């Protein structure tokens, strides 16, 4: 009999290089915080997890890490009970929006779930390694052998603002329809993606409509999405919907709040609306689903509370006839492997998943995960099927240690102020 008892939990906060990607709140910092979680069992098996690394998540993760030793990695329900008792006092959990509104509401529960999700993945990885079973088998088994991802297109600058230390890449700027189409072509050449999502809310809606039209012309028949992160009024959303109805697979978070989304959905002429903003917690589901505000829900195991909660969310969506897709924030391969395992088990996942992964040239794994034809093969090895590279982890942790604190919390508006000192987070609706 294996001894599955947790004897040690290692937490390693890291800073990962990120390009100057633009969104409605500002621009990505040159480095983004992530947290790598290692759960070690009495038998010496180590499981890996990854989640947000900003200070508030890290502090809670430290409390949870202190309580986990002595519990078996198989006791996932017990893990959630432990997490439920974490004290979130002192952190912003007042129901207002997070990261400038890009990740939905902040509540104490969501903060806990965003932390425990990384531990759940690490426990499942350890359990899978101990039992020599892939994580998808522990989740009930895969229903597909590969998972499709979409190209996540961003307006971007060539470099971070002058005077800001950061890594450079060879992507160049993309600030108009030609730049976006060129970026999409490179995503296709490098990874074979067949569907495309444009992060909008950056320029006036007419410019973003032109970019989507250019994509539709360059890639006829390919699924396209536009996501302005709630930056538009109901009327603007309706105008964009009318312009792009024929070419969009779905319009993501055109406007802010469930009632406004419901109004757009009712008048958008059948164009489906998707969200990773107005529904990011279970309590937000009833209003959104009963008012028809959302036709596609973007799951994200990080803030929904792990892989099993993602399956439960998908079951609810199935019950209400709502589609499922998958959201992503900046992440590395541990998260991508976890996303792929759970996505493989969700029967009603009929849209390509979002991933930021191609924008990250750094890794903490020995090998990068590679897309073929825009798809990842579902790993069948034990656990997540990935291996930690300790030297790479140490390098990114060293960067976190050396940072003066300015990069340890994601703040896209503050990053934008380095280029434009007058910048403040735009009020919504912006247009
Ligand atoms: O679909 C989304 O809303 C996102 O991916 C949110 C992210 O924060 C994205 O806007 C980003 O990274 O700039
Ligand atoms: Mg979105």
TrEMBL record:
<dbReference type="GO" id="GO:0008872">
    <property type="term" value="F:glucarate dehydratase activity"/>
</dbReference>
<dbReference type="InterPro" id="IPR034598">
    <property type="entry name" value="GlucD-like"/>
</dbReference>
<dbReference type="Pfam" id="PF02746">
    <property type="entry name" value="MR_MLE_N"/>
</dbReference>
<dbReference type="InterPro" id="IPR029065">
    <property type="entry name" value="Enolase_C-like"/>
</dbReference>
<feature type="compositionally biased region" description="Basic and acidic residues">
    <location>
        <begin position="410"/>
        <end position="420"/>
    </location>
</feature>
<feature type="binding site">
    <location>
        <begin position="227"/>
        <end position="229"/>
    </location>
    <ligand>
        <name>substrate</name>
    </ligand>
</feature>
<feature type="binding site">
    <location>
        <position position="107"/>
    </location>
    <ligand>
        <name>substrate</name>
    </ligand>
</feature>
<dbReference type="InterPro" id="IPR013342">
    <property type="entry name" value="Mandelate_racemase_C"/>
</dbReference>
<feature type="active site" description="Proton acceptor">
    <location>
        <position position="199"/>
    </location>
</feature>
<dbReference type="InterPro" id="IPR029017">
    <property type="entry name" value="Enolase-like_N"/>
</dbReference>
<feature type="binding site">
    <location>
        <position position="356"/>
    </location>
    <ligand>
        <name>substrate</name>
    </ligand>
</feature>
<feature type="active site" description="Proton acceptor">
    <location>
        <position position="327"/>
    </location>
</feature>
<dbReference type="InterPro" id="IPR036849">
    <property type="entry name" value="Enolase-like_C_sf"/>
</dbReference>
<dbReference type="InterPro" id="IPR034593">
    <property type="entry name" value="DgoD-like"/>
</dbReference>
<comment type="pathway">
    <text>Carbohydrate acid metabolism; D-glucarate degradation; 2,5-dioxopentanoate from D-glucarate: step 1/2.</text>
</comment>
<feature type="binding site">
    <location>
        <position position="197"/>
    </location>
    <ligand>
        <name>substrate</name>
    </ligand>
</feature>
<feature type="binding site">
    <location>
        <begin position="327"/>
        <end position="329"/>
    </location>
    <ligand>
        <name>substrate</name>
    </ligand>
</feature>
<feature type="binding site">
    <location>
        <position position="276"/>
    </location>
    <ligand>
        <name>substrate</name>
    </ligand>
</feature>
<dbReference type="InterPro" id="IPR013341">
    <property type="entry name" value="Mandelate_racemase_N_dom"/>
</dbReference>
<dbReference type="Pfam" id="PF13378">
    <property type="entry name" value="MR_MLE_C"/>
</dbReference>
<keyword id="KW-0456">Lyase</keyword>
<protein>
    <recommendedName>
        <fullName>glucarate dehydratase</fullName>
        <ecNumber>4.2.1.40</ecNumber>
    </recommendedName>
</protein>
<feature type="binding site">
    <location>
        <position position="28"/>
    </location>
    <ligand>
        <name>substrate</name>
    </ligand>
</feature>
<feature type="region of interest" description="Disordered">
    <location>
        <begin position="410"/>
        <end position="431"/>
    </location>
</feature>
<feature type="binding site">
    <location>
        <position position="410"/>
    </location>
    <ligand>
        <name>substrate</name>
    </ligand>
</feature>
<keyword id="KW-0460">Magnesium</keyword>
<dbReference type="GO" id="GO:0046872">
    <property type="term" value="F:metal ion binding"/>
</dbReference>
<feature type="domain" description="Mandelate racemase/muconate lactonizing enzyme C-terminal">
    <location>
        <begin position="177"/>
        <end position="271"/>
    </location>
</feature>
<keyword id="KW-0479">Metal-binding</keyword>
<comment type="similarity">
    <text>Belongs to the mandelate racemase/muconate lactonizing enzyme family. GlucD subfamily.</text>
</comment>
<feature type="binding site">
    <location>
        <position position="152"/>
    </location>
    <ligand>
        <name>substrate</name>
    </ligand>
</feature>
């Amino acid at each position: 009999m294996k001894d599955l008892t947790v004897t040690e939990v290692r937490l390693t906060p890291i800073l990962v290089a990120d390009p100057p990607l633009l969104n409605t709140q500002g621009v990505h910092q040159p480095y983004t915080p992530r947290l790598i979680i290692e759960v070690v069992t009495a038998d010496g098996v180590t499981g890996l997890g990854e989640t947000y690394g900003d200070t508030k998540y890290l502090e809670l993760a430290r409390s949870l890490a202190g309580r986990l030793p002595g519990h078996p990695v198989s006791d996932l329900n017990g893990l959630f009970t432990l997490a439920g008792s974490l004290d979130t006092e002192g952190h912003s959990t007042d129901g207002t929006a997070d990261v400038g509104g890009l990740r939905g509401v902040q509540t104490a529960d969501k903060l806990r779930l965003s932390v425990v999700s990384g531990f759940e993945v690490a426990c499942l990885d350890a359990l899978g390694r101990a039992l020599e079973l892939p994580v998808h088998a522990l989740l009930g088994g895969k229903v597909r052998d590969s998972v499709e991802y979409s190209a996540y297109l961003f307006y971007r600058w060539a470099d971070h603002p002058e005077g800001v230390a950061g890594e450079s890449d060879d992507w160049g700027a993309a600030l108009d329809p030609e730049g976006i189409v060129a970026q999409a072509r490179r995503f296709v050449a490098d990874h074979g993606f067949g569907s495309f999502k444009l992060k909008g809310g950056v320029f006036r809606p007419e410019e973003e409509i032109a970019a989507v039209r250019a994509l539709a012309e360059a890639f006829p028949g390919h699924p396209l999405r536009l996501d302005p992160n709630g930056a538009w009024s109901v009327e603007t959303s309706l105008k964009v919907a009318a312009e792009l109805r024929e070419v969009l697979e779905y319009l993501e978070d055109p406007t802010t709040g469930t009632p406004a989304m419901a109004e757009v959905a009712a008048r958008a002429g059948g164009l489906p609306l998707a969200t990773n903003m107005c529904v990011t917690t279970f309590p937000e589901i009833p209003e959104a689903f009963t008012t028809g505000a959302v036709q596609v829900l973007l799951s994200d195991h990080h803030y929904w509370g792990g892989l099993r909660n993602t399956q439960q969310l998908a079951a609810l969506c199935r019950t209400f006839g709502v589609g499922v897709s998958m959201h992503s924030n900046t992440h590395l391969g541990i998260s991508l492997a976890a996303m792929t395992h759970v996505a493989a088990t969700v029967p009603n996942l009929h849209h390509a998943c979002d991933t930021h992964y191609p924008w990250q040239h750094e890794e903490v794994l020995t090998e990068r995960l590679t897309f073929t034809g825009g798809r990842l093969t579902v790993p069948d090895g034990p656990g997540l099927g990935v291996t930690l590279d300790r030297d790479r982890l140490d390098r990114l942790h060293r960067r976190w240690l050396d940072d003066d604190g300015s990069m340890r919390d994601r703040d896209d508006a503050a990053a934008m102020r380095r280029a434009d000192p007058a910048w403040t987070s735009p009020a919504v609706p912006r247009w």
